[in-house]
Amino acid sequence: MLVSRRDALDRLGYWYASSPGVDTHSALAMYAAPEYADDLLEAFPGGAFNEQEFFHSLANEIAALPSHVRTVIFSSEHCQSRLITIEHVAKLHALLSPYFDTITVIVYLRRQDEMAASLYSTRLRGGEPVADILSSFDQSEFFWARYFNYEQLLDRYAHVFGKSFVKPRIYEPNALLQGNAVHDFLNICGLPFWLAEEAAMVNRAIPADGQTFLLALNVWHAASGYSPNHDRAKPVRDACALIAEERLQGRPMRPARDEAQHFYEIFRASNERVREAWFPDRSSLFLEDFSQYPASADDAIDTHKAALRAAFVIIEELVRERGDVENKLNAVKDTFHASMSWRVTAPLRAASQARRTCRTERFLCRARRYLDAFRRKVLRANPVSDDQVLKSPES
Q: Residue 132: which of 307, 260, 309 has the closest Cα?
């Protein structure tokens, strides 16, 4: 939302920084905790991050701020997930503190079982072949043990930035202004609500059929020896995830109710200490209603049929996109031929555009063949009729 409102923020005396990242500010996590952020490298040119270059880029951006700007906004969920030691947070503070009189840290806390269920789509997007929504989080691992522990999170930031400058919020409709996290954030920053109008929704949950398809795709890539960022795996997965997010319908997969309750219980004691220290007026840190979960896990659905339903939609979309690309390619070719003259610049630009379009066309053709092969492989493993495949999950 903030990305598309940069000009409006500027007029209001606010600045959404661009040197740490055009959209989300991944460079902050890369700078402060590189050992836990190597999977973010793909967001940087050439897949590499230069700490000194970023340091100077940030300094130059701050130095060039318009004189009427009084507040700079940084936003990155990775500052919660990757900065898991006091040393990480201290390095972030050392980076930012020379430029600002005060720094306020705003963090939204979501009940751990809900956060883990939401994270499942993110892990599938990243190429992980994880089949279990909750049990795949090993609490004995240093990273995951701290990822979901909000007491340690708040203690780290309070220790470095000062408790009075840390503003935790509960991510629940009854705890947010107008039941909306965006409005709640704008209110804390002193910004008008109209900034949220027509804001695009990002990072939406992938429906269950799409999750099942991505899981099968990730397992196939892993069995083929492809790493998640391999150039034969990531482009196909990214395209499929985007189409699944936009075209498929339904809710994402959910764990069983007793699994969610058990996962939440792991953090009950630390959550209570957070409540006492930060939210003394609440009877419990989070609402403890688990009725949104089914009695048995959603991952018990027929995975073959679900994956095929998603595959058909994805292939259809790729075919449509290929037709669009072909039309654009023909238009570029016409422009190129019409521009042939003693002037060289116009044909060169058209030729460059034609080459880029051809590369896109080749990728779409390759992705379509790839998905067709995947569909045939699944059908051979578990033959079903077209009528069975195309039935909705509810039928």
A: 260
**Diameter of the chain measured on Cα atoms:** 79
What pLDDT is stored for residue 34 in this prediction? 92
Query: Cα–chain-centroid distance for residue 112?
Result: 17
Q: pLDDT tens digits, residue range 270-291?
A: 999 999 999 999 999 999 999 9
Q: Which secondary structure element, helix H or strand E, spans residue 105, and what is its range?
A: strand 105-109
Enclosing H/E stretch for 313: helix 303-338
Secondary structure element (H or E) that encloses residue 26, with its range = helix 26-32
Rounded to whole angstroms, the Cα distance separating 42 from 318 reads 24
**73 φ, ψ (degrees, to nearest 5):** -110, 130
pTM of the model: 0.77
Q: Amino acid identity of 150?
A: Y
Burial class of residue 236, CB neighbours in 10 A (0-12, 13-18, 19+)? buried
Please answer whether residues 93 and 134 qualify as being in contact, where contact means their C-beta atoms are separated by less than 8 angstroms: no
Choose among 302, 315, 299: nearest CA to 376: 315
What is the amino acid identity at position 186?
L
111, 124 in Cβ contact below 8 A? no
Dist. CA 236–CA 123, nearest whole Å: 16
| Radius of gyration from C-alpha coordinates of the chain | 24
Q: How deeply is 295 buried, as exposed, middle or buried, from its count of CB atoms within 10 A (0-12, 13-18, 19+)?
A: exposed
Q: What is the pLDDT of residues 243-265, one digit of tens each?
A: 888 888 888 989 999 999 999 99
Question: Residue 343: phi, psi to the nearest 5?
Answer: -80, 130
Q: What is the DSSP letter of 201?
A: P
Q: Output the CA–CA distances (angstroms, integers) from residue 49 to 25, 191, 263, 328, in the order listed.
A: 13, 33, 36, 35
Q: Which residues contact 235 (CB under 8 A, 6 or more apart)?
A: 363, 367
Q: Which two three-digit tokens encode residue 59? A: 């300094």
Tokens encoding 361? 């066309």
- CA separation for the pair 236, 217 (Å, rounded): 9
Distance CA 306, CA 315 (A): 14
Q: How far apart are CA 203 and CA 44, in angstroms?
A: 19
